[in-house]
Amino acid sequence: MAQLLGRKPAALLGVATGSTPLPVYRALAAQVAAGRADVSRARIAQLDEYVGLPPEHPESYRSVLAREVLEPLGLGLEAFMGPDGTATDVQAACEAYDRALAAAGGVDLQLLGIGTDGHIGFNEPCSSLASRTRIKTLTEQTRIDNARFFDGDISQVPHHVITQGIGTILEARHLVLLATGEGKADAVAATVEGPVAAICPASALQLHPHATIVADEAAASKLKLADYFRHTYANKPEWQGI
């Protein structure tokens, strides 16, 4: 991200919530604090948002990203783009966000996490690989998992979200998917080595011309070609970057 901003100071950075990307945001903030990166012209784009939570709710993803990304980087909401989760016409809000991303020149780099079932954003298994930004119904397991952010009360967890679709995500110029822990090993293997199939939404990254998977040893433990991937990474030309 810092290298991209060095080349393109007004880059549009797509960010994700969750614990996995937090070290990335902290490292970028440290570079900014040390004067090694300039984010003053950067723009931040949201991946997904709960439907029905007001923007000021502490667990709206807008609030979460303000705390975890914008404030540490010294950016204000004027640098932020996201869908309107409180819109009366949710479908219109989804379409408006797709148009806004295109009008902004498109996302330059999109950070992604991955679910244990291979979902990216809130594109659950069997989501269309051509899908656009749209409303999705959360699975009961996802609501149970997210209840920890709502004082353990699942009744407070919204049933619906707005998410960039897989087709929307694939329009970013560079996709960087982060995965840590053994619990993500099956999903990473399916994403990288499995067939491109809606049952594993992240497998659509195989169709992208510039996708990077960053996985720790535990998350990479079920890759059949792990040794090959280590070898090619160790021998990449410096000019190629990631």
TrEMBL record:
Q: Which Gene Ontology CC terms are recorded?
A: cytoplasm
Respond yes or no to whether keyword Chloroplast is given for this record.
Answer: no
Q: Which UniProt keywords apply?
A: Carbohydrate metabolism, Hydrolase
Q: Give EC number(s), comma-separated.
A: 3.5.99.6
| Keyword match NAD | no
Q: Which residues form the Glucosamine/galactosamine-6-phosphate isomerase domain?
A: 5-206
Can you state which reaction this protein catalyses? Answer: alpha-D-glucosamine 6-phosphate + H2O = beta-D-fructose 6-phosphate + NH4(+)
PANTHER family listed in its UniProt record: GLUCOSAMINE-6-PHOSPHATE ISOMERASE (PTHR11280:SF5)
Q: What is this protein called?
A: Glucosamine-6-phosphate deaminase
The scientific name of the source species is: Streptomyces minutiscleroticus
Organism lineage:
Bacteria, Bacillati, Actinomycetota, Actinomycetes, Kitasatosporales
